[in-house]
Amino acid sequence: MARLSVIGTGYLGLTHAVCMASVGHTVVALDIDEAKIAALHNGVIPFHEPGLAQMLVEQLDSGRLAFTTSWQHVADNADIHFLCVGTPQLQGSHAADMSQVFGAVESLAPLLTSPCVVVGKSTVPVGTAQSLADKIISLAPAGQSAHLVWNPEFLREGFAIKDTLHPDRIVLGVQHDVDVDALKDVYETSLEGGTPLVVTDYPTAELVKVAANAFLATKISFINAFADLADTVGADVTTLADAIGHDTRIGRRFLNAGVGFGGGCLPKDIRALQARATELGLAEQFAFLTHVDAINKSRRSRVVDMATDALGGSVSGKDITVLGAAFKPDSDDVRDSPALDIAVTLAGLGANVTVHDPEALHNVRALHPMLSTDDDVLVALANADLVLHLTEWVEYRELDPAVVGSIVNQRIVIDGRNMLDRESWSAAGWQVTYLGKPGSQAAL
Ligand code: UGA
Question: Which of 10, 225, 314, 340 has CA atoms 20 to 30 A from the CA of 185?
């Protein structure tokens, strides 16, 4: 079994560290945030990911997983170092902020005295891996025997463990014909389970990641454009998606119309890709991503307009309950969340907004203390003039529309995820409006 280090204990890094320990490797994970490392050391994770907290405690108990803030400790105790730090969007630009990636390499490389592998997993603009490889060779006492491999990560929040242990593919980008046996050993369990392995060069490996996210984002905006067309002509976008999805060349996944994509990846990755393509003289070829982004953003203003219409022309002074704040279910991540963005906009227009989310309310309170929140969904719904269903947690689909109907002020719901059952909600007297599906008028 290998001795691994993981640099950065965010979503990607922590999940990777815990999962690699679970398959038998010895892992030391580093973060520069001392409070975070202290909490992790005690088995406390700073975000919600199903199953991860329990797995963290198990791996700490196994003795194979440790946390540190010491670069020297990492250099001394691992032969394969995974770079898992963030590449957020730069303030005032569409490009990615690469300071954490270069900072990590500048801290680690001077301590690499013996043969080792540095494995880049962060999402980066194409061309970064080559610069990092050159930097490692110039800074590391081990010189040419410190190799860089580019190994993009494809995990989804909410499915992070499964995606790490059983990914759809493992991509390894290498320079010249450096052998990847050490990485094959690290990923032996997944490879034996049938995960396809793609070994390629640096730029291809870097592009696989951004191309995948750009494709997924494009798929969502594609179906959302059709949602608007469906609304205009009285068609049903869900049936449309089902029908085109039967064509295996198209596929049904990522064709759910609604308030669109958010989170810490898809929005910033399409912007960073476009910024990089523009730098490389390919602005025209990647201009379509401006439209993907614009269609996605327009979903949010569309829901605000629908809410305004539903409340007779103004939301001011009206009680609106927003179901969901996370950018997707099974996550407490509110970065660039459509649901939270809509809630904040409506509050800014004078509505009395109450937000419910099963996991993300602590983040909502920290970021937007002026929004009302309630941990009890029925308390949050009481006396609402309008209900917005914006993150598709299962528990919202399990609400009894008759019970909810008995506590609200008006039975009007806008389903921004096209998931609520039309028949049962309208049978309970609700006026249900979807995005791209003919609405239902109240039966009562
Ligand atoms: C995304 C990719 O799916 C992962 O493969 C990738 O590894 C990750 O980014 C990353 O770059 O790290 P994630 O951000 O966790 O993963 O979320 P997704 O499941 O992709 O969902 C993104 C957004 O699209 C969510 O807001 C979701 O609600 C929305 N979405 C998804 C739709 O609006 N419609 C759909 O049909 C599917």
Answer: 10
Does 231 share its domain with 168? no
Span from the CA of 270 to the centroid of ligand 1 (angstroms): 12
Cα(236)–Cα(438) distance, integer angstroms: 6
Catalytic residue list contains 116: no
Nearest to 418 by CA among 282, 229, 239: 239
Say if ligand 1 is within 6 A of residue 187 CB: no
Tokens read off for 137: 């060779």
Residues 130-143 have pLDDT tens digits of 999 999 999 999 99
147 and 248 assigned to the same domain: no
What residues form DSSP beta bridges with 83?
7, 120
Supply the CATH number for residue 81's domain: 3.40.50.720
Give residue 176 CA to ligand 1 midpoint distance, Å: 33
User: What is the rounded radius of gyration, in angstroms, for the C-alpha atoms of the chain?
Assistant: 24
Distance CA(358)–CA(369), nearest Å, equals 17
Q: Is the dihedral of CA 311, 317, 318, 324 positive or negative?
A: positive
183 residue type, one letter: L
Cβ-contact 418, 390 below 8 angstroms: no
> What is the DSSP secondary structure assignment for residue 123, as one 8-state letter?
-
Structure tokens at 261: 């994509």
**Phi, psi (deg, nearest 5) at residue 164:** -80, -40
Binding site membership of 154 for ligand 1 (Cβ less than 6 Å): yes
Atom of ligand 1 nearest to the CA of 328: 28
Q: Is the CB of 220 under 6 A from ligand 1?
A: yes
Q: Are 186 and 210 within one domain?
A: no
| Pairing status of strand 412-415 against strand 170-174 | unpaired
Distance CA 413, CA 420 (A): 10
For the entire predicted model, the pTM comes to 0.95
* Parent domain of 368: 201-444
Query: For 172-222, how does the pLDDT look when each residue is reduced to its tens digit (9 = 90+)?
Result: 999 987 889 999 999 999 999 999 999 999 999 999 999 999 999 999 999
